[in-house]
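(Protein data)
===
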Amino acid sequence: MTLLKKLQWSFGILLFFFVLPVIAGQLPFNKQASTPIKQPEDKQVVFAATNLEEQNVLEQTKEPEPDLDPFKVLVLFTHTYEAYEPMVKAVSGKVATSHETVNIMSLKDKIVNHFNVNGLKTDVLDVDIMKELQAQGKGYHQSYDVMRPFLSKHLETNNYDLILDLHRDSLKHDLTTISYNGENYAKIAIVVGAEHANYRWNTAYAESLSSTLNAIVPKISKGVISKSGDGVDGRYNQDLGKQMMIIEIGGIGNTEEEVNRTIAVIGKAISKAFVNDSKK
């Protein structure tokens, strides 16, 4: 072998060992490549549980998602001093159907609590209409007229899914009480004024609630009563909202326990009729 060929052969060997790392770095099976393969930027990596037990653990540790659009209820009391005889007697020793402090409005905290438990965001229009009547020198029959500006102003800046004007009936205990599963409940009557443009809307809401109430406690609701003609208001401020109604909870002779049970049923019925069923 000539000297020239030896030099060429030696140079070839050196060149081979020099370029080998470069070539090897480009081979697909080399896990030590200096440039890693990038995931597409628009894809998100998702880590999933590998079995049901792990999935259950993940679900239990999840933060509960806040209800960004809760069902909102407004409660008001146009006849604020309407009272239940047993409740008044327990406090004062006297039998009365009207009282300044022990009345249907005094149940507002219980109402809010029962409604909130059922996922309803509940506000109270906290206006004592009887005091307003006295201050303005007006009669009892003008209660809805006195309530109207307070309600109208409140609705200018607040929206509600349901508006309830709560009352109690004037009938005796045997006509306003029902027994179910060994417990007594105050019966419910729903009243809708028929002399305004929202009448059909109000009636649809009222009938839906009435049927749901009876599905929970059979015959607890006496149904929807439409009022019109001489001697009645005919609108009861329900023209201010398509989703507004009067609910009469029991009568003058119902006990606090009976009324309280019925309030709980109302909260459950509202949730079932207008919230839970709509999410199915």
